[in-house]
Structure formats: structure tokens, C-alpha cells
Amino acid sequence: MCGRYALAALKEEIIGDFGISHLTPVAQERSLPSDWNIAPTKEIYLIKGVPATGERTLDIASWGLIAPWSKSESEALRSQSMAINARVETVHEKPTFRDSFKTRRCLVPASGYYEWATELGEYPRKQPIFISPKEGRFLAFAGIYNFWRSTAGDRQSVAIITRDAVHDLAKVHNRMPLFLPADRWSRWLDLDTSLPEVMDLMRVPEPDENLRFWPVASKVNSIRNNGPELITPIHLGESETLF
């Protein structure tokens, strides 16, 4: 499960690190502010492939995939809140996700993400944990996107793909986002990549090898709170851990 993440970076940094050569009109006109508490339905950056050229485009969409059969704004919002994540095990077959998985794959850049501890490990239940890269500025979440036509025009939305957590992260929570290493980005974004190869791209060995994590204050629980202090490590006393 990934229900909250952070992206504290300038647009130019994303363009440079992800090798982006094009911006959509909306990404040209606007820059999203640094955000340490990105919640579902917020606007986020996504990276798409340019058909036939292999180049990459930066765009902006809202987080949570709107079901294409939604008939009203209220239905769209409800479906969006229920589809912020797509499971790697079923993304290719679930009606909400399967068409996007075949034809609209993307990357979602992040500085890190939050998870709330379950009873699986050393942290007290619901303790917020921040997970970030050991090296580099960004994580690259595998994602899919879609368009939904409303009275105000086409609305673009995104879901982040998740997988089973591994090793120490599995002691925090049993799910984690699917991170794609840089040598898989081009094939993931290329819509000519065959479905069997796309499925294989999602089998990432040692997906946690570039990750570190630490407990943070509960201020992140409220979407009203924002700022770099949300990812400041905190010390948990002996009474606040299970072991």
C-alpha cells in the first residue's frame, strides 16, 4: 500500500534526472510546489514515453485512477479514492486497470514515501515510517494513467503499482510500491514492449537494495501539515517499540 508520498524537487531536477526531452502544455505552463505530504486526488508529476521515438515527456495528473465508466463527478471522485494503487499481481486483468496497463504506462517520481507500521515488526502499530533512496534524489514508481471525460474536459489520473514488501520493509508493512531501476524505464514506457516482457519488467530482484527508512512524527497523518519537518527522524523510546 502506498497512500502518501513526498516529492521535494524542482521541475528542472526531475527533467535532468529522468532524461526528459518534452513537456506537455500543462507541464510547460505550471510547476508543482515541493510537497512532503502528497495525498490521493492531489496533482502529481508523471513521466510518459513519446511514441516511436523513445523520448520522455513530463506531464501533470491527479493521483487515483478514475474508472472510465464513471458517469458523474461524484462517481469519479469515489472511484479515484479507491484506485490509488494497482496490485502487480492483478493490474493486467482488473477492469479498472488492464487497458491502462497495456497502453498507458508511466513513471511517478518521488523523493520518498510513507508507510504506517502494522503489527509485523518492531514499530508500534500505525507508527508512520518514511522510506527514501540511499543514493540519488528520486525513486521511480511504476504507474499507469487514464483519461476521463467530464463536462470540464478530459481529466487525467494515475495509479501507482504495488508489490509484496521484502526483507526489513516487510516488517513495517506487507506492501510496497513497485520501483523500476533506470535500465528498465525505456522498455516500461515503450508501448511496443510485449505484454510478457512488461510482466517480466515488474519482477525486480532486491527491490529494497537502495532504500533506507526511519520513524517520523504523527504530524504526517493530517494532510493539512506539510514541510520538510515531516520527514525528520524521531527517536522512539523503549516503551514505544514492541521489542
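(the above was protein one; protein two follows)
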Amino acid sequence: MRRAYPRHSRGASFAQKGFSKTRLAAHLTEAGIGYRHLRGLGTPKRGRDAARAGDVESFERIFLAHMDEPEALVDLGEAIALAKDQTVCLLCQRDPEHCHRLIVANRMVAETGRELRHLFMESETTQFG
């Protein structure tokens, strides 16, 4: 049997760990904030598998190699172009010091000279899932 919503098969805790891009975009739009999903800046499956296994060294190697792939370079270029003209925010669900987004953010800072600040939620109860 095929599930209509395969993400829901990951268990009840999935909604607490992740969020829907569609709902997030809707919430941000309501607040007057633009949203752009840059898929090329995400972690490839092998990298996610390494991260889940706690293999930080492999994860970083895989992600750094991924950042040299055409889709990642195009999306990084788009992120950099956006950051040159306006304030941007990268979303991460983990401690920023242990997240691949820090690699992306550092590359953006190197290209734009913009300041990098980490923002944290005051409450863990806000969800976009």
C-alpha cells in the first residue's frame, strides 16, 4: 500500500524534528518575510546518513564535496547575490556550530563581507510542521 503522505510514516516525532517548507513559507509570507528554498545547499543522502550515524568526519567530507557540484554552486551563488542586497537568514534545526549551514554561511560571509549572527528561538513550542 502506498501512503499519501510518506513523511508521516516516519513517526509522530517527525513533526517535532522537522517542518513543512510550504507551511513555513506561508507563515513567513504572512509576516512579510520572503522565503527561498535552495535545494542545492542541502545535504545529500549520503551526508545525512553519515550525520545520523554520528560520523562527523564523513559528513563534512561529503558535504564539502557536494558544495563543489553544479547545483550547489548555482544555489550558493543565488544565496550570495541575495545576501549582497539584503539581510538573509539560513535555517538550521541544530546547534549552528555543528550544522552544515555554517559551512554555507561562512562562504557567504567570505563573499559578501556581511556579518554572521546566530538567532535562537526563545520558545521550543513554535512549530511550522
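Reviewer note on protein two: Residues 1-17 have pLDDT under 50 and may be disordered.
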